[in-house]
Amino acid sequence: MAGDERSTTERVLALLGLLQQRRVWTGPELADRLGVTSRTVRRDVGRLRALGYPVHAGQGVGGGYRLGPGQDLPPLLLDDEEAIATVVSLLAGAGGAVAGDAALRALTKLDRVLPTRLRHEVRALSGSVESFAAGRAPVDPQVLMTLAGACRDEVEAGFGYPSGGQVRRRRVEPYRLVASERRWYLLAYDLDRDGWRSFRLDRMTDVSARTWRFRPRPAPDAASYVQEGVASRVYPHRARFLVHAPAGTVRAQVPASAAVVRPRGSGRCEVISGAGSLDAVLMHVLLLGHDFEVLDPPELASRCRVLAEKLLTAGAPASDH
């Protein structure tokens, strides 16, 4: 009985693979490919329908069995070449910071079930793919996969990371991978520093996932935390402004890596940004061309007055000599 059940399962999977390869098959064609009778094909089609696959049967000339779209996406069967092509495409996109979170989730699912015999081919092919998109920091696909898997499996991760002129080993509980227009970041709880941190993947070395599992802590919003860090926390000076313009208008004027823009009522928004000096961050907001108010820090208000006086002096007519 066990052998018969296994034979039936293998035959139904083979039938599903055939239906995914071509638009329409006749009953005799499927029976010939599978080495069974047309009656067995009809029974196996019924089994696929019971599993949620929308297999349609047409009558007359041009009729036959075809796999149609359904309400839910059923599992796909990929042969070796299709699996390699899919994984390499996802690796190339994710490594170049092009793919979003959905592509990375798909990649981790494929990684979990990819046969060992295909892994060396995937690595070899992914290394031959490059991107001509300017400004994107390259990321080792294996680093991306290791950290994505650690986030998925809720296991600790370790890596070398530059700090104070030295590369130090970091031990973290990985939470989310976040992609910006230029880089990939990891939001993780740093176990040695007892706090949430974001790390650039292109700066990591010797990345590894451990077997030690952890219970996820209450975490900040990953995308917002990383964006605020990139736009302001990394700079020696950061400031907050109330800008008298809609958030959508201001977001279109500044890249996400330069400032965090949050709606604040009708026609206004809060802008958080950082720079090497208070004057620099002030000028950035001034050049947006909207009325604004300084929210923080208090000393920035006095700098507004100083710069205003300098601008008035510069715009005054030259004295006659």
Strand arrangement in the largest pleated sheet: 6-5-4-3-7
- Helix content estimate: 40-55%
Uncertain residue segments: 95-99, 128-134
**How many distinct domains?**
3
Beta-strand residue percentage: 15-25%
**Gyration radius from CA atoms, angstroms:** 29 Å
Shape: elongated
Give the helix tally.
11
Order of helices and strands: HHHEEHHHHEEEEEHEHEEHEH
Distance between the termini: 111 Å
Quaternary organisation of the protein chains: single chain
How many E-type strands? 11
Q: Would you kindly provide a written description of the structure presented here, covering whatever features stand out?
A:
- The protein has 321 residues and is α+β, with helices and mostly antiparallel strands.
- It folds into 3 domains: 66 residues, Arc Repressor Mutant, subunit A (Orthogonal Bundle), CATH 1.10.10.10; 143 residues, no CATH class; 91 residues, Alpha-Beta Plaits, CATH 3.30.70.
- It is built from 11 helices and 11 strands.
- The strands form 3 sheets. A 5-stranded antiparallel beta sheet has the order 6-5-4-3-7. Strands 9-10-8-11 form a 4-stranded antiparallel beta sheet.
- The chain is elongated, with a radius of gyration of 29 Å.
- About 4% of the residues have low confidence.
- This is YafY family protein.
- Pfam families: HTH_11, WCX, WYL.
- Keywords: DNA-binding, Transcription, Transcription regulation.
